[in-house]
């Protein structure tokens, strides 16, 4: 029983329904071949790092599935290759760490870790920000105080 | 007159001390490198989008190979560019 992951980029020029339809086509295709769908991730519209077929953006989808044999992979790839709506695809077999990583990601374990790091980074920035601000405030207060004192003297 | 405690070092003690490089995957127990995370992978490429050598990143051989695979997959899916300037 192997777990696979297929990521593909759908042409963004199509209407929203057609894009959804493309993804469901392959879900049905895989189900029809007797695969168990583990997860379907809609990554959404992304800027491409370089243009593909004169397009600069693409709609990303990622389907994770498990299958007893790898025989369906060539069939799936042939279908993807023939499809005009698909700009690019990549099928990868996941090792046990990959499966665990995706599980953790779905359960928010990995995202949260990064948020904590971000929070820590934010905290550091905040800590750094008041530090220069504080002397300024002090400097502002300091001249003000003697002036007030002088005024009182006068 | 400076007291004896004020005199510490005649030369900068930090000269010649390099911080030891380490493999972050081994140290933090990262076992899988996701090709769908371009921001993470950007740490391992230079400004032209070329892979950085192990000499610089400090990765162990096992994980450097995995990083290379992940970067190549990311390039195929247009998460990362093949060639560019000013990536970072």
Describe this structure in words.
The complex is a heterodimer of chains A (154) and B (88). With 154 residues, chain A is of the alpha+beta class. Chain A has a single domain, classed as Alpha-Beta Plaits, CATH 3.30.70. Chain A has a 4-stranded antiparallel β-sheet with strand order 2-3-1-4. Chain A is globular. The termini of chain A are far apart. About 14% of the residues of chain A have low confidence. Chain B is mostly helical and 88 residues long. Chain B has a domain of 53 residues: Irregular (30s Ribosomal Protein S18), CATH 4.10.640. Chain B is 33% helix and 0% strand. The longest helix of chain B is centred in the C-terminal third of the chain and has 16 residues. Chain B is elongated. The relative contact order of chain B is 0.19. Chains A and B meet through β2, β3, β4 and α3 of A and α4 of B.
Write the SSE topology.
The complex is a heterodimer of chains A (154) and B (88).
Chain A (H helix, E strand, L loop, with lengths): L1 E9 L5 H17 L3 E17 L2 E13 L4 H11 L3 E9 L1 H11 L2 H20 L1 H24 L1
Antiparallel strand pairs in A: 1-3, 1-4, 2-3
Chain B lengths: L23 H5 L9 H4 L12 H4 L3 H16 L12
